[in-house]
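Input record (Table S2, row 254):
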Amino acid sequence: MRRLNTLFVGQTFIELPEVDSTNSFAQALLSKSKPAEGTVISTSCQTAGRGQIGSHWESEPNKNISLSAILYPDFLEAKEQFKLNQCISLAVFDLVKNCLPDRPVSIKWPNDIYVGNRKIAGILIQNSLINTQIRSTVAGIGINIHQTTFCTNPPNPTSLLLETGQEHPLHDLVPQLCEHLEARYLQLRARKILPLQQDYLRQLYRFGQLANYLRSSGETFQGTIQGIDETGRLKVQVGSEIECFDLKEIRFEV
Ligand code: BTN
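Output record (biotin complex):
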């Protein structure tokens, strides 16, 4: 890996030849020690990658980025957790957009990275709370780089190789990701909340566009994303009403 241009993210770098999940490894580490802030756990072979809402994250060995960063955002209250989400999503967006400057890269709420209508990266943030504060965060990031076939179907996976036809050396991309993570995290730590929120909305998939959605009840409907509420729920205009949705309450349809 090339030299890292960061103060702390990735300065402690644990490279594992194989692990079930870098998030689980990071959580186990946190349960018995206090790793330095910015410690990154990375692997080229993740055998039981974890996704959102208990799903599985697929990644072929030696093809993709699978890593978790340990952070201590004790400057955030538990009710501000979505700000972290925005910060990490933007860092991953920044990296992917850098690699695909001419492609329509976006952030699909809450924290998937899309190219057009295809998912290129997923994020699993696991916070440990102490009273009303966040004690520690494990920010797990999976980015499809060289994988070209996927076993799991939706939501339409893609990779940098599929998008560009070119190889992107992981030993260059991982330090770049650490740099983007640190830059966005420092922005959050300096409480530059408004620019983070504005950047997030600017990159939000389907923001302001009329599109199809599915409620958890099974009902389909048309709506227009208007923004995010203070707790991180998706605000959608449905007819003349604004409705707010949690992750489990809405599915994006084609
Ligand atoms: C999702 O989109 O459902 C989230 C996927 C997150 C995958 C990453 S890969 C590295 C880290 N370790 C895990 O077990 N999951 C995250």
